[in-house]
Design a protein that fits this description.
The complex is a heterodimer of chains A (about 160) and B (about 725).
Chain A (H helix, E strand, L loop, with lengths): L2 E7 L2 E7 L5 H8 L18 E4 L2 E4 L5 H4 L3 E3 L12 H9 L8 H14 L5 H7 L10 H16 L2
Parallel strand pairs in A: 1-5
Antiparallel strand pairs in A: 1-2, 3-4, 3-5
Helix pairs in contact in A: 3-6
Chain B lengths: L2 H5 L3 H4 E3 L5 E4 L9 H13 L6 E4 L17 H28 L7 E3 L2 E4 L2 E4 H4 L33 H6 L14 E6 L7 E5 L10 E5 L2 E6 L2 H14 E4 L10 H6 L3 E7 L30 E9 L11 E6 L5 E5 L4 H12 L6 E5 L11 H12 L7 E4 L2 H7 L6 E9 L5 E10 L52 E9 L13 H19 L4 H7 L4 H14 L9 E9 L6 E10 L3 E11 L6 H20 L28 E6 L15 H16 L10 H10 L2
Parallel strand pairs in B: 2-3, 7-17, 15-16, 19-20, 23-24
Antiparallel strand pairs in B: 1-2, 4-5, 5-6, 7-10, 8-11, 9-10, 12-20, 13-18, 14-15, 14-17, 18-19, 21-22, 22-23
The chains are: A alpha+beta (about 160), B alpha+beta (about 725).
């Protein structure tokens, strides 16, 4: 049985019809057509589906719609106002810090949220912030370098 | 002519030039996250004489593109790169000839640069000539091999063509594919490899908006709404009852399981029976007996046995496939397969359908490290879509099935013995390796090789995995021959003729284990001779490129400098597949509560480097993954079921555990380009094990190397 839910996604109020137990990830991908958030495990263990909800990074595969109602959600598509790239994304491109890229949206969400709290994090802080994100291709060190660079670039305009 | 071009000689299969000057290039190799399409675009751009930005790499397609077999074995840059180079050189020659004809000048006077063809004041372009040059012609085997111009794109770290989409979060993966009228599907797999479906309580699906599809033990649902389909699959799982049997080996007795047979014996190097002569005649590297080697008396012998468990691909995305049965009786399939033509033929075989009626198009998936479940998921989609003709059905696997039902890299066991002289020089080398086979790809052994085909009402047999032939790099015995100059060597493989756990190609196949064993044992021999492990290797190695790579890695790593208590440095080295990339790895290990690998220093020689950053990224990624295999990974199972089916039961390396990696590219620009994707796997494992031995003076010979195995080894030492 579907119900109407209202929430804010990437700055826009949205109203969606969904089963209360359907996941936020399902609604983002299949109802709102925001495919940047990926399904990796459905168990909240890999980070591919990370979004920001009310300021916190959460696995959207593990958020039922009944608990997403009224929340403010930001996805990888909505990180940068005006549709450009967020500095984390630019830094990742500069470092070519991806191989298959399936994990990268979730990593971008973790990193961007870290930079909001700590604009110029050191390596250790970056690693800690990304430790819930899995990557199988092995670009971890490139990603860390990119995020540290993204922070440093902000410090010295 | 390169073999892929000889097999697909019509130039228009490879290249289409558009009036706007854009160039479509079609190859049979596929993007697996390794960046191959970018490297091939660089080659195409240079041979055509156009800017890289004008080249568009089209998805591989069985109907419109060349058939280049599998994207595997680190062969793409060599095979497809060679074919693209010649095909594009010939396209360029045809455009040049057309310009020369129009201007009534000799073709040699026409130069091509940045998409423009020029002769003195006269200028035209690829786009302007596109309509006049016929590319529906076979490549000319006698035409010049290459234009020989200066490299523009090749040799540069051109950014990956696919990363802007992926990093911006744009739809790009097969998981994001949405076709008109598309439905979704889920399959409920058996709970264990030997299980058969007894009964489905179909009534429990009543009221759900899905269609049940059942064929023997293959059972799934399809419907319009993905959330509803997922829920229905869970209901179906609970509604299905199965007959199960214990079919799996003892996970703690893999060595005995692997060695117990029956086997196919794979003689690799067999010295003469009289024991007098060397085996040099059969050595692929043509090594010779070191001066006086055979004459030295044996002083002592050493023997050791090594093992590795089953390993999972553990891709970040679950496998996915899309299929549609069309009104005209044809079948369209989208897959992230490594071999779309093999998949097409296997689907045809499984269903008794003419392969010409099937079209498979590649769509990108997550990182692929060998024969994973991509083909299986495509066939699942074909079976579910058969119930709804005209409708595309998009099937995505669960994480649980991805970890439990994708083929595994086989467990392996090695026994190696050597006799050495008084000075420690190796006189005889005696090596056996046991393994399940390393390929059960679609079409292997004359069967479809698709998971669901074995579950149908009229099931296809599921024979044990075989090994690729030596020309394709072998499987069990890949890299089983040491690169070192030993006077007398015997190397034998033993492929198990049973495969209770389905095994197939995983990055580097047998090379990961063989290099781990050979390079661990070299370390043991060095230490027993009181020699430095690097010097010991160099003393046995005549191969100049190998020596250069070993020395480069050692120099960059600070080899020989003292390490703190509880820390150690170790080295591992190999030439992948005996003819591919040379790779030497120095690992630093800290062993306290945990085993940590803070740093890897890697030197690699891949011949001519097409994209330096691409090579670095592949080596870094390969080494990181190999570190994960080495330190953490082991497929878990009881006698009935695979039990490692999520990221907690099958952990992989995390950010906090990932080593810092520096890669040195040892240049060899005059030599052919070879692939980099698998070169680091074995050397990394050996380097870590050797560093651990240096840190703790404890030799671990079975992977993964864990604190528990350190304790067990200490307890087992008298």
């Amino acid at each position: 049985m579907t119900r109407a839910f209202e929430l804010t996604v990437n700055g826009e109020p949205v109203r969606v019809e969904a089963d209360p137990d359907a996941t936020l990830l399902h609604v983002l991908r299949n109802v709102l057509d925001l495919k940047g958030t990926r399904f990796g495990c459905g168990l909240g263990l890999c980070g591919a589906c990370f979004v920001r909800m009310d300021g916190n990074v959460v696995p959207s595969c593990d958020v039922p719609m009944w608990s997403a109602a009224g929340r403010t959600v930001v996805t990888v598509e909505g990180l940068s106002a005006g549709g450009g790239l967020h500095r984390v994304q630019r830094a990742l491109l500069d470092e070519q810090a991806a191989q298959c890229g399936f994990c990268i949206s979730g990593i971008i969400m973790s990193a961007a949220t870290l930079l909001d709290a700590d604009p110029a994090p050191g390596e250790r802080a970056v690693i800690e912030a990304l430790d819930r994100n899995l990557c199988r291709c092995g670009v971890q060190r490139r990603v860390v370098r990119a995020i540290v660079n993204a922070g440093a670039a902000e410090e010295t305009p | 002519m390169p073999k892929d071009l000889a097999a697909n000689p019509i130039l228009s299969r490879w290249v289409t030039v558009h009036p706007d000057g854009g160039v479509d290039v079609r190859v049979g190799k596929v993007e697996l996250g390794q960046g191959i399409l970018t490297a091939l675009a660089q080659i195409a751009a240079d041979e055509l004489g156009v800017e890289l930005e004008r080249v568009r790499m089209r998805p591989a397609n069985t109907a419109s593109g060349p058939d280049e077999g599998l994207t595997s074995g680190s062969m793409s840059i060599m095979h497809s790169g060679g074919a693209v180079r010649v095909a594009c050189a010939q396209v360029r020659a045809r455009f040049t000839a057309e310009a020369a004809r129009r201007w009534d000048v000799g073709a040699a006077r026409v130069t091509v640069r940045r998409g423009l063809l020029e002769c003195g004041e006269r200028v035209t372009s690829y786009g302007a000539l596109a309509g006049a040059v016929d590319l529906d012609v076979p490549a000319d085997p006698l035409a010049p091999f290459t234009h020989g111009g200066k490299a523009v794109a090749v040799g540069t770290s051109a950014p990956r063509l696919d990363l802007p989409d992926k990093i911006a979060g744009r739809p790009r993966f097969i998981h994001d594919l949405r076709l008109p009228g598309q439905w979704f599907g889920r399959v409920v797999r058996p709970p264990s490899p030997g299980a058969a479906l007894r009964h489905v309580d179909e009534g429990r699906l009543a009221g759900m908006d899905v269609l049940l599809v059942r064929d023997g033990s293959f059972v799934g649902v399809t419907g319009a709404d993905e959330a509803e389909v997922s829920r229905a699959a869970e209901v179906l799982r609970a509604a299905a009852s199965w007959d199960e049997h214990d079919t799996l080996p003892d996970e703690d007795g893999l060595r005995d399981f692997l060695r117990s047979g029956p086997h196919e014996t794979l003689p690799v190097l067999t010295p003469p029976l009289d024991g007098s002569g060397p085996d040099g005649s059969e050595a692929p590297d043509g090594s010779e007996v070191p001066a006086g080697g055979a004459a030295r008396p044996v002083a002592r012998g050493l023997r050791a046995s090594y093992g590795r468990p089953f390993l999972a691909h553990a891709s970040m995305a679950p496998s996915c496939g899309v299929a549609r049965w069309n009104d005209d009786g044809t079948l369209s399939v989208w897959s992230h397969s490594q071999g779309i033509n093999g998949l097409r033929n296997a689907i045809g075989l499984a269903l008794g359908l003419d392969a010409d009626r099937i079209e498979v198009e590649h769509a990108e998936g997550a990182g692929c490290y060998g024969h994973n479940a991509a083909d299986d998921a495509a066939f699942d989609a074909v079976l579910l879509a058969r119930a709804v003709p005209g409708r595309p059905v998009h099937v995505q696997w669960s994480r649980r099935d991805e970890l439990a039902w994708s083929p595994f890299g086989s467990a392996m066991s090695v026994e190696v013995a050597a006799e050495v002289s008084e000075s420690g020089a190796v006189l005889t080398w005696d090596y056996d390796v046991w393994s399940q086979g390393h390929t059960s790809r679609p079409g292997f052994a004359g069967v479809p090789g698709l998971l669901a085909a074995g579950h149908l009402e009229r099931p296809w047999p599921q024979p044990p995995a075989v090994d690729p032939p030596p020309a394709a790099g072998s499987g069990t015995v890949r890299n089983a021959v040491p690169i070192y100059d030993f006077p007398r060597r015997r190397v034998t493989g033993h492929r198990l003729l049973r495969a209770p756990l389905r095994s197939s190609a995983l990055r580097a196949l047998g090379a990961f284990m063989n290099v781990f064993a050979i390079e661990s044992f070299m370390d043991e021999l060095a230490l027993s001779a009181g020699a430095d492990p690097l010097e010991y290797r160099l003393a046995h190695l005549g191969d100049a490129r190998g020596r250069r790579v070993l020395t480069a890695a050692a120099d960059a790593s600070g080899w020989g400098a003292p390490m703190p208590e509880g820390s150690g440095r170790g080295i591992g080295f190999a030439r992948y597949k005996d003819k591919g990339a040379y790779c030497a790895v120095v690992a630093e290990v800290e062993a306290e509560q945990e085993i940590r690998v803070p740093r890897l220093t890697i030197a690699v020689d891949v011949g001519l480097v097409v994209n330096p950053d691409g090579v670095r990224n592949q080596i870094e990624g390969g080494a990181t993954q190999a570190a994960s295999w080495t330190l953490k990974e082991r497929v878990r199972f009881d006698r009935r079921r695979v039990t490692s089916d999520d990221w907690e039961s099958y952990p992989i390396l995390r950010f906090s555990e990932t080593p810092e990696i520096s890669v040195i590219l040892v240049e060899a620009p005059g030599l052919p380009s070879v692939g980099a994707g698998e070169a680091a796997q074995g050397p990394t494992a050996a380097a870590i094990a050797n560093a651990l031995a240096a840190a703790l003076d404890i030799r671990l010979r079975d992977l993964p190397l864990t604190p528990d195995s350190i304790i067990a080894t200490i307890n087992a030492t008298p």
